[in-house]
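Allow me, if you will, to draw on your knowledge of protein folds for a short while. I have a record of one protein: its chain in single-letter code and its fold written as discrete structure tokens. Kindly check, if you would, that the fold set down in the tokens agrees with what the sequence suggests. Thank you for your consideration; the sequence and its tokens are set out here:
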Amino acid sequence: MSALHALSAPVRDRADTVARLGIVESPRERSFDRVVELAARICEAPLATLTFVDGDRLWVKAGYGTELREVPLEGAFCRWPVFDGRPCLVPDTRVSERFRDHPFVVDAPRVRSYAGVPVFAPDGVSIGSLCVMDLRPRALSEMQLGALEGLSEQVTALLVAYRQASELAGALDENERLVERLVERTHRLQEVQRIAAVSAWSLRLPEEALEVPEATWRLYGLDPDAWPDARLAVGELVPAEDLRALRDAWRQARREGTPFSFRHRILRPDGELRWAHLRAEVLPAPGAAGVVHGTTQDVTEQVCLHEELLRAQKFETLGRLAGGVAHDINNVLQAVYGGIDLLADAVAGDDGVLGEVQDAAERGMRLVRRLLLLASRDVHERSEHDLGELVEAALRMVRTLLPEQVELAFVRRPGEVRVSVDPVQLEQVVLNLVMNARDACGVRGRIVVAVDAVARADGPWARLAVEDSGPGIAAAVLDRIFEPFFSTRKEQGGTGLGLSTVRLVMEESGGRVHVANQEHGGARFECLLPIAGASAGEAAVEPAPVLETVEGEQRVDEKVVLGVLLVEDQADVRRMLIRGLERLGHRVRSVADGVEALAAIEEETPELMISDVAMPRMDGLELVRRLRGEGRTFPVILCSGYSAESVDLDALGPSTFLMQKPFSLTDLRRHLDEIVALRG
């Protein structure tokens, strides 16, 4: 290494080289301290230092006999061997032109002799010096100077090792950071997998040895220690039909070399049913060795949501169908009711046949009302009640419908359990559940109805439970028990609307219904309703004003004869209403739809108009809006096969009333009497 090369490097380059070594401001180290101590002892000097160039200063890495940590570069003893690139020997500082005025010579520690050699970086640049100082004038022997230069080379070797150690430490730090990032990403991935309910599995080929990590077992709440062979777990937990389809799909994917994707059920040991979705990239060659990696995802929630969506769509479709069918049946029943009233006088002495016909018509009317509830056309008024009182009142009516050998017990917890429900809807729920239990019991059995409050993870609930002592519900139909029109007793006249109505009422009331077979036999239905106050702040639905059908008869004043315009598109219903109105003594004109009605009103304004709602060309609602827009204020009775809440009477102005089909001649007479009374 030449001095010329050392001299050619400027100060900043030396400082940059030192900075790259990363040695400046490093802590004291035994290896460097030992070099400086050896230099002092070999040269028999009380003072020794190892310094490096750091900008405008010399930084002291190690010292012997001194606590100096740095000195200014300008005028420093050790700058000379650094910038000369060769040993600097001063036997007597007092006669040296460079040293005699230096503070260390004039004042303490009063250095009298100095010897320093350059220290070279691994790339050959002189970056520091190793020196010894004495408090008396003297010169080093050749042996001492050689030893000092040898120690300088040892420092260079230490710098190489230091740089390598620093690089290694940096690599280790970087590796540690990479490990930390890897651990962090692994934890993040595991968290994402936990949230997404995803885990991994692997399959060794060609023996098809299945390896399932513990996380996958936990995904389904299983104990991996209970299943030493994962294939046994699959065989035990996956239903047979799913397992056959899974194996077929796997063989096909391997044969065709296509991605494997399959969804199947898992029946856990505790009885809970879960859904899993398997995915993997499959090797095309059936006999190829290797490992197939795949994932399994718990998709139970997605499957349930999808089924709920399909169920809702089915309800919506069936609802539309049921609403239309109910309207048409109401028109038929209206003709039947009218016929019964017209025939009443002819068979006044023997009403047995008419009574049976009327009973059949009333059963049809109740069936239509259940259809309308299924169609979600009814908007019910909910109010706060004690659930126990409502159920007890409903059971008083239901008891008469049970065979004598079927016992009905009611268990009610002390105190009130208040809920916000429509009492009529709740009565329908109790009736449907008890009738379902009666059918399950047969001619002999026991039905227990209970009301209490329960605390669940999602809050407090009021509970209505109905248990029966029947044989229970077959597993094959358990999932379909609440489907509209699904019935296991169609031969006995079952409509399949009872339990679907229960579910619909519960959902409309903010609750839910569950069913399960009991260990001791029979089925148990649980209806959960929010405790009153949980839905506080919701606006109550105001029902439209309705002329209600009641029992009893009010005779119209025989002197009051109204000119009535009847608007009805169904010919049979129109004929029955004409005969009924004429029997009540009124003058009747009839037309088939709203367009004909407008023309008839232009010829003669009626005192009262009775109009169907659903008609071709122009319906009853549009007809009334046109008439009110023209300033015509005569009373109007709208007749609808739908519910009262489906007609917004407020938007049609005063003197507009609603009657729900089917209605009797007695109902019509009462409504006409009320309208006459309103006219004064």
Q: What stands out?
A: The two ends are 130 Å apart (CA to CA). Residues 1-9, 534-558 have pLDDT under 50 and may be disordered. The first strand starts at residue 47 and ends at 54. The CA atoms of residues 447 and 468 lie 5 Å apart.
